Amino acid sequence: MPQTDKMPSSARLVAAVSLGLLGWIGSEMVRDLMPPHTAFGWFNYVNVGLGLLCGWLVIGSRVGSGYVDAISIGLTGAAALVFWGLFTQSFNLMLKQSLERKYDGPFEGIVGMFNNAVDYGEFLLDGTLIGVLVAGGILSGLLAEFVVRRWT
Questions:
Q1: Which residues of 62-98 are buried (b: 16+ CB within 10 A; e: fewer)?
Q2: Which UniProt keywords apply (predicted)?
Q3: pLDDT (tens digit, 9 = 90+) per residue, 83-121?
Q4: Which of 23, 36, 53, 135 gets the most CB atoms within 10 Å of its CB?
């Protein structure tokens, strides 16, 4: 059977697990930055799932072209994790707000979702959190590249 881009590999697994771990660590750091009355619910688990997906699809599918490229691939994976995390959490809040009849129509709900994302994004502007996300993304890319070179 020829190997294709869709095949599972050890590099995809390592990328998924490492970005999932980064999702958990980042979620724990975000909890400290949010107001104390915030109800988080499944926040960490959703972000771990997003980290697993972004690691598998974004990092794992692109590694294999060298360590320098792995750094940028890892940063892309971390950026994708932050983007989809903001999107998912703001979409969830928009759904909650729409059930509370805060919006008059679907367009207002979509605008509200983007406003929620901007509000959440302001909490992410923390130097320590940004440093951890950058370092974790780079490390995820380098680990996946190491696995590709070692076991391929």
A1: bbbeeeeebbebbbbbbebbbebbbbbbbebbbeebb
A2: Membrane, Transmembrane, Transmembrane helix
A3: 999 999 999 989 899 988 888 888 998 999 999 999 989
A4: 23
Question: Using the 8-state DSSP alphabet, how is residue 58 labeled?
Answer: I
Residue in the structure block whose two tokens are 């320098």: 68
Closest CA to 111 of 125, 100, 97: 97
Helix (H, G, I), strand (E, B) or coil at 115: helix
Kindly list the domain boundaries of the chain, sorted by start residue.
10-151
Average pLDDT over residues 33-42: 85
3-state secondary structure of 36: coil
The answer to whether 24 and 44 are in contact (CB under 8 A) is yes
Task: Measure the CA–CA gap between 15 and 59, rounded to whole angstroms.
Answer: 6
Element (H, E) at 148: helix 127-151
Cα 38 to Cα 77: distance, rounded to the nearest angstrom: 27
Which residue's entry shows tokens 């997003």?
Answer: 50
